[in-house]
Amino acid sequence: MGKKQAKTAITPTRSEDYPEWYQQVVKASDLAEPSPVRGCMVIKPWGYAIWENIMRDMDAMFKETGVRNAYFPLFIPLNYLEKEAEHVEGFATECAVVTHHRLEKGAHGGLVPAGELGEPLVVRPTSETIIGESFSKWVSSYRDLPILINQWANVVRWEMRTRIFLRTSEFLWQEGHTAHATAAEAIERTAQMLDVYARFVEEFLAIPVIKGRKTARERFPGAVDTQCIEAMMQDRKALQAGTSHFLGQNFAKASGIKFQSAKEQEEFAWTTSWGTSTRMIGGLIMTHSDDDGLVLPPRIASSHVVLIPIVRKEKDRESVMDYVNRLAVDLKGQNYHGRPVQVEIDDRDIGGGKSWDWIKKGIPVRAEIGPRDIAEDSVFVGRRDKSHRDKAGIKRDEFVASIGTVLDDIQQALFDRALAYQQAHTLEINDNRAFYDFFTAANTDKPEIHGGFALAHWCGRDECEERIKEDLKVTIRCIPFEKMGSDTGGSCICCGEPSEERVVFAKSY
Amino acid sequence: MGKKQAKTAITPTRSEDYPEWYQQVVKASDLAEPSPVRGCMVIKPWGYAIWENIMRDMDAMFKETGVRNAYFPLFIPLNYLEKEAEHVEGFATECAVVTHHRLEKGAHGGLVPAGELGEPLVVRPTSETIIGESFSKWVSSYRDLPILINQWANVVRWEMRTRIFLRTSEFLWQEGHTAHATAAEAIERTAQMLDVYARFVEEFLAIPVIKGRKTARERFPGAVDTQCIEAMMQDRKALQAGTSHFLGQNFAKASGIKFQSAKEQEEFAWTTSWGTSTRMIGGLIMTHSDDDGLVLPPRIASSHVVLIPIVRKEKDRESVMDYVNRLAVDLKGQNYHGRPVQVEIDDRDIGGGKSWDWIKKGIPVRAEIGPRDIAEDSVFVGRRDKSHRDKAGIKRDEFVASIGTVLDDIQQALFDRALAYQQAHTLEINDNRAFYDFFTAANTDKPEIHGGFALAHWCGRDECEERIKEDLKVTIRCIPFEKMGSDTGGSCICCGEPSEERVVFAKSY
């Protein structure tokens, strides 16, 4: 092994080349891989298990708020998409379009599309218009409201530049859609679901977020208000981890979602929509992973513990495997947040390197067990949130009894570390020059590091927002709900006009 | 209300017009509805809950056999589909084809497809070819085998004649794909997964099935052997509820899934695939439902019990609702096969008709609770497997304590009834004339009833199979694994040549 590889399991390191480090972590951890279809990914079992855990836990949170799941068509007739003008404008440039419904032998012998459709079908980029059509049939009286629906599905947005998990042409997501009798109720639901997202992302993914609202320019196409949660990655760029939209009556008017009010008047409903996607897995990777590979928070990890039998002599194999199998049974008997602890046994006969494979895959706890450990009835344990050299022997029964606590410790340690990082790189900036320096490579020897979150005053005008975006590729990530910064007023970081509050500026994914 | 409606909740009845009865049951039970997209359905919450239960329970059975979930692209490049000749032949006539990746303003102002793709993409009708591509990268040594993968996904087959749940252009399914080092191991896996399907469909959906193998003509395109489970609907037609395919080395050769054997020889892998879909929900409806609507087996029901408060005087409302809410808490505290009993409270203020709504929705147990019941600390209970008139008062605590047993009773009663029906309409037929009579309306006054399952001898020749299909629209559903019928030999029902075993003939969905 070369000298460089001996230092870290992932090459390059974060500070050497952050984007390439990300790709290498995804590869080394066996989460996913590119597919032969442009911009689409294959989510491998170790990665899909994270998505299964996300679906299970987030779905339970949705259902607690009264939401139920349903399923709507993959295809949207073109004329439905056109019903809301801003909406279709926002998605027209990235739609996969189905135009034919069979294949037949072409002039050169190969198959060519045939059976042209009367009206082209768009593969859903999002489902407001097709779900709105159903809602319009389901609602006639105020007694039918609210309607609280969620869908777990795949969507397609034909992105020009793709990056695995973060921006793919096809991705998996959930999209919630609700309809209400009053604006107030819809606005409350918008905030409620953003709260669910923030709670989920912080408690399960261990990613601290800032809750706020998007500026008019950054809103979802067709929305009256877009609320979001923003997280800081280790290159100090922002990642939008979830959005919740108050759609006013825009989509209700486009789809004809009308109801008879208690006063017997015909009114349009008020709707919301809200979504999160496999993009969260990208955020998870970039928040916690290190130069040795993936680091998985236990609450959402594909598995919790790997047992690595150490068999150097064939005569030991049976007794070691017996011991390991019994240990696995006892660990699985322990509960972690209401479910059995998940245990892997790595019985591959490949000599060394097994432990490193699991470090790269980010499993929270590793335990090596050889004949000497068994003699002492102990196991040799390493935690993924600590250095790979930081391993210790622990009595077997103590290991079993404490596993839940250890997993909780790791979860908390990851959140604390991410929060400290976010706070260390969130700065109040009042001076235009300092602001530009913060976001340009000139002021740092690490070209891949992008300043961080700048809390700066903004006058509220599109022009200033646009200017900063053009100059620096920096956008307003959100106008935070909870006031950030020390003052109650100041002057716009761009034009110097008066401003009442600070907003969060950052480069972003 | 007219006299006719007073008799049954669904019009027409099964014997009046079976296909129309089916549509009306789907509608009245609120399971699903047609969508504006040709041949695609909207699965509503009451229907999607069944699919969620199917996914949860079937997924657990898969995982017990070592299968793990993953996710592969929705789109398949045309040249991948073409890799296996029989396969592409089988699906070419029903492929949705994506040809463009954006929309732009056309000559008449409306949007038209733009950005033509270099190579058209097919929306997956099944994923052997795209998953095979991944497998070819994952496998290099015999140590990498077996690979045991499943995917829960949507697929599209552009069907000309669609029927909700039974045959839709888009449907939800799971497709398992495995690769093995030996033919024997792949054949064993094919049978193992068919067993999982048979067990699931019988134990959870309460649908008795016959396991067997398809004739060569009815095989999956590209398969060496297709095994299936066949169920009898109440119109005596067969429904194929799941299939498991041994693919030999056909797809391994097409996709280049090669490995170094233990003897260091390069070999092609042996693969299998197996699938079930939302079609099972169609089978569920047609097996158990009656002229009053849907009947749901408890193990898979959207919910188990509905509590219907009876409030005739406003002064009683609070005490009745208190009683009902406390009862709901106690019921939810009961376990049914490892999960809490699911309870609905119908507190709609709509006067009568609430009970009928739940009968039509098929919920296993209904309990009405009014002031008089409360005075006696009892509830008035009806079971969906019995007549709607068959209701009885039962002490509240006894109701709570016995709910699990009652649900198990219902589950068993539904299975027993379906099995008795299947057996009553499965006949050994030896005479060609009797066979033709069995499948033609001439011999019955119920034109919608289609004979049943005919156990008849078949010589094994395509011509005879084809002749019967042309004459009667009757196909060989399967060559049963367990010998059916009383003899060990006979003569072909079509040509009279010698035959060694009886096969199952039926009309089918």
**CATH topology group of the largest domain in chain A:** BirA Bifunctional Protein, domain 2
Helix content estimate of chain A: 25-40%
Shape of chain A: globular
**How many strands of chain A?**
27
Number of helices of chain A: 15
Mean of all residue-level pLDDT scores of chain A: 94
Low-confidence stretches of chain A: 1-5
Distance between the termini of chain A: 35 Å
How would a textbook summarize the main sheet of chain A? Answer: 11 strands, mixed
Radius of gyration of chain A over all CA atoms, rounded: 26 Å
Q: For this entry, what is the oligomeric state of its chains?
A: homodimer
Can you walk me through this structure?
The structure is a homodimer of 509-residue chains. Chain A is α+β, with helices and mostly antiparallel strands and 509 residues long. The first copy, chain A, folds into 3 domains: 20-288, Bira Bifunctional Protein, Domain 2 (BirA Bifunctional Protein, domain 2, 2-Layer Sandwich); 298-422, Rossmann fold; 426-506, Translation Initiation Factor IF3 (2-Layer Sandwich), CATH 3.30.110.30. Chain A is 34% helix and 28% strand. Chain A has 15 helices and 27 strands. In chain A, the strands form 7 sheets. In chain A, strands 3-7-8-14-11-10-9-24-27-23-22 form an 11-stranded mixed sheet, with helices on both faces. In chain A, strands 18-15-19-20-21 form a 5-stranded mixed sheet, with helices on both faces. In chain A, strands 4-6-5 form a 3-stranded antiparallel sheet. In chain A, strand 22 (426-428), helix 14 and strand 23 (453-457) form a beta-alpha-beta unit. Chain A is globular. The two termini of chain A are 35 Å apart. The relative contact order of chain A is 0.11. The model of chain A is unreliable at 1-5 (pLDDT under 50). Chains A and B meet through strand 2, helix 3, strand 3, strand 4 and helix 4 of A and strand 2, helix 3, strand 3, strand 4 and helix 4 of B. Strand 5 (97-105) of chain A pairs antiparallel with strand 5 (97-105) of chain B, so a sheet runs across the interface.
